[in-house]
Design a protein that fits this description.
The complex is a heterodimer of chains A (about 140) and B (about 120). Chain A has about 140 residues and is of the alpha+beta class. Chain A has four helices and seven strands; from the N terminus they run E-H-H-E-E-E-E-E-E-H-H. In chain A, helix 1 packs across helix 2. The two termini of chain A are about 25 Å apart. In chain B, strand 2 and strand 3 form a beta hairpin.
Chain lengths: ~140, ~120
């Protein structure tokens, strides 16, 4: 295991619908953007090995997020490489899983192989979890 | 806090016992002797782990009489927390926007995300 961040959200929609919203360039342009910004410019070749470029038009400037699809298993798993200014333009890996839960779907995003301090790459097993817990605790206390 | 400090923080939390100590201190301050009792390791070993955490400035020690009381310095995790938070916030906001998108019938969805 490498440095990773995991977030999830239970959404009242089918896995098919959610999966397609991730893979369809027109849909992506609508929702894959920061709050309050213009729709993103998306160019995507949604097949394994295909590349995508998402240009997010933030109020503060345009930011390019690019990568290529490594797993497309509709409607269970979508995995792609991901590089942006936040990853210092090196490839990281984003794995999105869709798990049906009653009449909703739990969408989990696991962003891994995150770059940064060299130590980040070396350390294994759960250090991100504790940092995550600290972050949550700080957020709950309103200090973050 | 520079990269060196971030490295020492990350090295410090790479060890499961030290993570457990941090988790314990997240709950409340503790004396060194208390920690040694609560963890299946010797007092000597506990002290070594604590020294690493002190060097990373994750933990500080207050001497009260004969007691050495340890407390967490959460602010020392600032960079590491910020580092993690930037990725987490990004994806949490994207998932909120995805929810808003799929729950709206029209194309006129905003990217603001749904209220939590």
């Amino acid at each position: 295991m490498t440095a990773a961040v995991t977030v999830s959200r239970r959404i009242a929609a089918s896995a098919d619908r959610l999966f397609d919203a991730w893979l369809d360039p027109v849909s992506l342009a609508v929702w894959m953007r920061r709050d309050g910004s213009e729709p993103s410019n998306v160019v995507a070749d949604p097949r394994v090995g295909g590349a995508f470029t998402i240009t997010m038009n933030d109020p503060g400037g345009s930011f390019v997020h690019a990568g290529s699809y490594t797993v497309i298993d509709r409607p269970h798993t979508l995995e792609f490489t991901w590089r942006s200014i936040a990853t210092h333009h090196t490839d990281s890996v984003v794995r999105v899983t869709f798990r049906p839960d009653g009449d909703a779907t739990v969408v989990e995003v696991r962003h891994e192989q995150l770059p940064d301090a060299e130590a980040v790459q070396q350390h294994t097993e759960g250090w991100t979890e504790i940092i995550d817990r600290f972050a949550r605790t700080l957020a709950e206390n309103g200090d973050a | 806090m520079g990269e060196y400090q971030l490295d020492s923080v990350l090295s410090a939390v790479a060890d499961p016992t030290r993570r457990a100590i941090l988790d314990r201190l997240l709950v409340s301050d503790a004396r060194v002797t208390e920690l040694a009792r609560e963890f299946p390791i010797s007092l000597n070993s506990t002290s070594k782990h604590i020294k690493v955490l002190e060097r990373a400035r994750l933990v500080e020690r207050h001497v009260r009489g004969r007691d050495h009381v340890l407390s967490l310095r959460a602010e020392a995790l600032g960079d590491a927390v910020a580092w993690m938070t930037q990725y987490r916030d990004f994806w949490e906001q994207r998932l909120a926007a995805l929810e808003a998108f799929v729950l709206s019938d029209a194309d006129e969805v905003t990217a603001d995300g749904a209220p939590r």
